[in-house]
Amino acid sequence: MTVNLPELPFGLRPFGPDGQWAYEGGALTGRAGARQDRFVPPGGDGLASVSDAPRLLGTAPDGDFQLIARVKVGFAAAFDAGVLYLHVGEREWAKLCLEFSPADPTICTVVTRGHSDDANSFVVDGDSFWLRLSRTGSAYAFHASADGEKWTFVRTFALGAAEQPAAIGFLVQSPTGKGCRASFDRIAFRRSGLDDLRDGS
Which InterPro entries match (predicted)? Predict the structure, then answer.
């Protein structure tokens, strides 16, 4: 099944557990089931310990890009999250999350290279925030924003070989809870990178 959103120049396909993905009125919604996540514990045994969560992904066009969305999460349990997701291989992926971590809405990131790291950036007010995943050259970057205008730098990193295709899109998780629903609206895709990661633009 391919899902085509008018805001994106590429189709999306579901991966992992059934996310009940739906698009209506400019908003994409998805749902994670109980104890669904996409994470390889740093002390775990590689992919033998990986869990899984619903993802809706498409192949990013060549070159620089920005994927933007305003995310709203129905927080109910610790680590419930709506996520912009990047995948370059079975052992290499990254997440930019609006996450209940563990009792406050927080901007969090995970980069997985065999095992996952996990870092909290800052606490936010409410259940909605803007997220941005970008690529400039061979580097990726995560930003977050309260209004979609002024962006706070969260992280920059390399992932995979330069020639590896990247799949990008959306994920919903509920690692400790009974399930979580998230929506993504104001979705936008720009075929340009970022000149300055830290100037707020």
Answer: ConA-like_dom_sf (IPR013320), DUF1349 (IPR009784)
Q: How far is CA 138 from CA 15, 77, 117, 161, 178, in A?
A: 25, 36, 20, 8, 38
Q: Which CATH architecture has domain 13-190?
A: Sandwich (2.60)
In tens digits, what is the pLDDT along the chain, a chain of 201 residues?
899 999 999 999 999 999 999 999 999 999 999 999 999 988 866 555 567 999 999 999 999 999 999 999 999 999 999 999 999 998 899 999 999 999 999 999 999 999 999 999 999 999 999 999 999 999 999 999 999 999 999 999 999 876 778 999 999 999 999 999 999 999 999 999 999 999 999
Is residue 184 a contact partner of residue 28, using CB atoms and an 8 Å limit? yes
Q: Burial-class residue 37 by CB neighbours within 10 Å (0-12, 13-18, 19+).
A: buried
pTM above 0.90, yes or no: yes
Q: Cα dihedral sign for 1, 115, 50, 21?
A: negative
